[in-house]
Design a protein that fits this description.
heterodimer; A: alpha+beta; Aldehyde Oxidoreductase, domain 3; Aldehyde Oxidoreductase, domain 4; 3 domains; seven-stranded mixed beta sheet; about 25% helix; globular; B: alpha+beta; Ubiquitin-like (UB roll); five-stranded mixed beta sheet; 6 helices
Chain lengths: ~775, ~160
């Protein structure tokens, strides 16, 4: 039997997914089940003048229509700060704000009834740009003011370098948001079991968030709300906080009717109403010596939180400390403002604020390279964190080895193999360019979210030497089941096929925090290892008795217990489990993990926001048609500091998928907003990459710097995404010889940026 | 008056008869009337391909097909292609190549991929074009291509 660790054994969820037997929320139906729909505000901001719900009640098949006054518990949602009504009473702050809920016998009847309601709204002046929202006299979104919070870093700020740097580069970057576009729309099934107890089956990343949200709106103890995660068709952050709202709607209707209620979003409503990646404005003023060695960096960012706080403050927390990337900078000043507007509210999205600031710092590094006349790779080499100079943005000293340089080397080596290789047919008007980008990614939750950085697991050994593993973090496609299975199989010496990992259920494991921040494999795996350690206190003496050795000499591998150093002395694990069963020895154990405490000062932004870091470097080659402004990404090379590979297909899949999703953000995916209303809520008008857009991808996985995860693993879900769009940006600018400072690079943006350099500029004059 | 229309299908190899409203989508007939929930609805507008089934051997988005127009047709869904074990060569290759992540697009992708293999299309660029009607947000398509290649080779052997 090959060792499970680092293997390519089939993912445990693969067969049921290819066979179509994996059931998602929309596939689950119960007798008497009702279907929910939402009455949403079509425009914002506005005052609710009147809300006549009779037209909805008149639609045949409708069983319940509820407004704000009908919420049995608190009429509030919001993960960090409950500032958002589940159902609006008087003030609409964004398009899509909920006014009423409908339950009916069919989805068609429910949505027809919702559409029959014509709320009378008095429009109010709104604000839709985060910089304008801070100007005096700007319309106020909440009475507390439009500035939610400013995060800062001050490290030798205003030191000598800032005054005397011979080279200074300045830029303002305007970076657009992004829709998650998970293929499965939001959905939830609420099953009331009595007036005091409910089960929720949800498409979600964070069952414990859902549990808290449902308990609050129903006014129930947490223990009376059971949340089971259904197979979840993609998340990417879009199913971090938002499913709490979906579940709260379904739960309130289920309690009102006493019947199971299923709420499934249409794609259009999902695109229109759910959270997005934050749009950001990022201003840079960076200085260097004449060799391009950085002397100071000043960054001021404005994060468009939209109408509610949502997760914006924690997104900003990561953006703030990620602002200068993997570079050694003696003097740092960072301000990150979280600002309300009347736009759709920003939420979690893969990278959590880091992709935006990375796009900006990598654009600035290329500007600096051009300003001092050196190659973009060389400018990075001169400034990267190394074993000798390894102080991060926040003054945290990184332990050796520091793989920033190794990632740059490996990615550029992979890219060197493309020389002369074009995937787009040569054409005289096409221009080619290459771009590079790096990221320093803080693994797991920021210091500010440390209280959530914990994880629970249960391992139950079966008499036939198979194992049930219960975990608190979810599978949403990223491979958490596969990595959990791999870790458990490795630790128990079992073939992965003998380990069954079951999806989270809040009634079986303790609150394990959210499945976010690339922490799934890490947090789940360490909790499983803890459970296995506890089990082995009981198993090893039994095995030792059968083997005739000391308990400390027992090792588990290849489905046997054997004497360490003498593998010929072995007994099948099935026999050990048989003995434990016969002697009624406990074969269940819980496991727990929490991150190590660390110091961080909120006021100065100095300290250790993360326990460990991962580096990554992506290099992209593009072909650009300057006449049409079209970009084709031909190649991407990716080098990642992964700590240790748990499941090889899962990690490769994260990197390939991250690259293509980030390519979409960088080039295609434009949220067309008109006063906060999305004008392109469909996959015809909001384009995401197809199979025809995939570039050639090559990758190097570096295992030289162990992380704090199981067997030394580090998170990969977000570092896989973060550098790609920046590398593409730099490649396009290299091809065209201009700077483009807006994202995404849709054709009009490129043609506009070319200006007089456009091939037809003289004809159009 | 009952306006429902009788639709006779050979559904996954079995003769079945359904009575449907004139506007009923093939997708709803499959998921609700026949209980075949393997076919997914991702957009309801023919944009994402998650609801792809084989209609007389051709891959179609079942959300855009009226059930009543299918009388007499042969329909194959993901359940009928390789059974509960997912034994079609492309299904097996997707499992072996790690080409499955969240799985929501997978049934539709399986049906299109099966049609691509059946048609004997082997040029990678042509395969990519044919798969471009099936959106996948997780994989970046790389391992899906690998699975298609692997299934083509295994199928020949």
């Amino acid at each position: 039997m090959a060792e499970p660790l680092g293997g390519r054994h089939p993912r445990p969820d693969a067969v049921m997914k290819v066979a179509g037997s994996a059931r998602y929320v929309g596939d689950l139906a119960l007798p008497g089940m009702l279907h929910a729909a939402i009455v949403a505000a079509p425009g914002a901001p506005a005052r609710v003048v009147s809300l006549d719900l009779e037209p909805a009640r008149a639609v045949p098949g409708v069983e319940a229509v509820l407004a704000a006054g009908d919420v049995p518990g608190a009429n509030l949602v919001g993960t960090i700060f409950p500032d958002q009504p589940l159902l609006v009473e008087d003030r609409v702050r964004m398009v899509g704000d909920r006014l009423a809920l409908v339950a009916a016998r069919t989805p068609e009847a429910a949505w027809t009834a919702a559409a029959a309601v014509e709320p009378e709204l008095e429009p109010l002046p709104g604000v839709h740009d985060p910089v304008e929202a801070l100007e005096p006299g700007a319309p106020v979104v909440h009475e507390s003011g439009n500035l939610v919070r400013t995060f800062r870093v001050r490290r030798n700020a205003g030191g000598d370098g800032a005054a005397s740097a011979p080279v200074v580069v300045e830029a303002e970057y305007r970076i657009g948001g992004q829709e998650h576009a998970y293929l499965e729309p939001q959905g939830c099934l609420a099953i009331p079991e009595s007036r005091s107890r409910i089960t929720i089956v949800a498409s979600c990343q964070c069952p414990f968030y859902v549990q808290h949200a449902v308990a609050r709106v129903l006014g129930l103890p947490l223990a009376s709300v059971r949340v089971r995660q259904a197979h979840t068709g993609g998340g990417f952050g879009g199913k971090e906080d938002y499913p709490s709202e979906v579940a709260a709607c379904a739960a309130v209707l289920a309690f009102a009717t006493g019947r199971p209620v299923r709420l499934i979003y249409s794609r259009e409503y999902d695109l229109q109403a759910t959270t997005k990646r934050h749009a950001m404005v990022v201003r840079h003023r960076w200085g260097a010596d004449t060799d391009g060695r950085l002397l100071f960096a000043e960054v001021e960012s404005f994060l468009d939180a939209g109408a509610y706080v949502g997760l914006s403050t924690v997104v900003a927390e990561r953006a703030n400390v990620s602002a200068i990337g993997p570079y050694h900078v003696p003097s740092v000043k960072v301000d990150t403002h979280v600002v309300h507007t009347n736009n759709l509210f920003g939420g979690a999205y893969r990278g959590f604020g880091a992709p935006q600031v990375t796009w900006a710092h990598e654009a600035t590094m290329d500007r600096l390279a051009r300003a001092v006349g050196v190659d973009p790779v060389e400018i990075r080499r001169r400034n990267l964190l190394t074993g000798e100079s390894c102080t991060t943005c926040t003054g945290q000293e990184l332990p050796s080895p520091v793989l920033a340089g190794a990632c740059l080397d490996r990615a550029t080596e992979l890219a060197a193999a493309w020389t002369g290789s074009a995937t787009v047919a040569p054409s005289p008007h096409l221009r080619r360019g290459t771009g590079v980008a790096l990221v320093l990614y803080g693994c797991n939750l920021h210091h500010g979210g440390q209280f959530l950085d914990r994880s629970s697991a249960v391992v139950i050994l079966q008499p036939d030497a198979s194992a049930i593993v219960r975990v608190g973090l979810t599978e949403m496609g990223q491979g958490n089941l596969a990595s959990a299975q791999t870790v458990a199989a490795q630790a128990l010496g079992l073939d992965p096929s003998r380990v069954e990992v079951w999806e989270p259920d809040t009634a079986t494991v303790a609150d394990s925090g959210p499945t976010v921040a690339s922490r799934g494999a890490h947090s789940t795996g360490l909790a499983i290892l803890d459970a296995v350690r506890r089990l082995r206190r009981r198993l090893d003496p039994v095995a030792a008795g059968l083997l005739g050795c000391a308990p400390g000499e027992v090792e588990l591998a290849d489905g046997v217990a054997r004497v360490a150093g003498d593998p010929s002395r072995a007994v099948p694990l099935e026999r050990v489990l048989g003995e434990m069963t016969a002697r009624r020895i406990e074969t269940i154990a819980t496991g727990w993990w929490r991150s190590r405490p660390r110091w961080f000062d909120e006021a100065t932004g100095l300290g250790s926001p993360y326990e460990t870091y991962a580096f990554a470097c992506h290099v992209a080659q593009v072909a650009v048609d300057p006449e049409l402004g079209l970009v084709r990404v031909e190649h991407v090379a990716a080098a990642h500091d992964v700590g240790r590979i748990l499941h090889r297909d899962a990690i490769e899949g994260q990197i390939q998928g991250g690259i293509v999703q980030a390519m979409g953000w960088g080039l295609l995916e434009r949220l067309e907003l008109d006063r906060g209303r999305l004008l392109n809520p469909s996959f015809t008008d909001y384009l995401i990459p197809t199979a025809s857009d995939t570039p050639e991808i090559s990758m190097a996985l570096l295992e030289d710097a162990p992380g704090a995860g199981p067997f030394g693993a580090k998170g990969i879900g977000e570092p896989s995404f973060i550098p790609t769009a920046a590398a593409i940006r730099n490649a396009v600018c290299d091809a065209l010889g201009i700077e483009i400072d807006r994202l995404p690079f849709t054709p009009p943006v490129i043609v506009d940026a070319l200006g007089t350099a456009h091939p037809f500029a003289d004809l159009l004059d | 008056m009952d306006e429902r229309i009788v639709v006779r299908l050979v559904l996954n190899g079995e003769e079945r008869s359904f009575r449907v409203a004139p506007g009923r989508r093939l997708l709803d007939l499959l998921r609700e009337d026949a209980g075949l929930t393997g076919t997914k609805e991702g957009c309801g507008a023919g944009e994402c391909g998650a609801c792809t089934v084989l209609l007389d051997g051709r891959p179609v988005p079942s959300c855009l097909v009226l059930a009543a127009s299918c009388d007499g047709a042969a329909v194959v869904t993901v359940e009928g292609l390789g059974g509960p074990a997912g034994s079609h060569p492309f299904q097996r290759a997707l499992v072996a190549s790690g080409g499955v992540q969240c799985g929501f697009c997978t049934p539709g992708l399986v049906m299109t991929g099966a049609a691509v293999l059946e048609a004997g299309v082997t040029a990678p660029a042509d395969q990519a074009r044919l798969l471009s009607g099936n959106l996948c947000r997780c994989t970046g398509y790389v391992k899906v291509f690998e699975a298609l290649r692997r299934a083509g080779e295994d199928g020949d052997g």
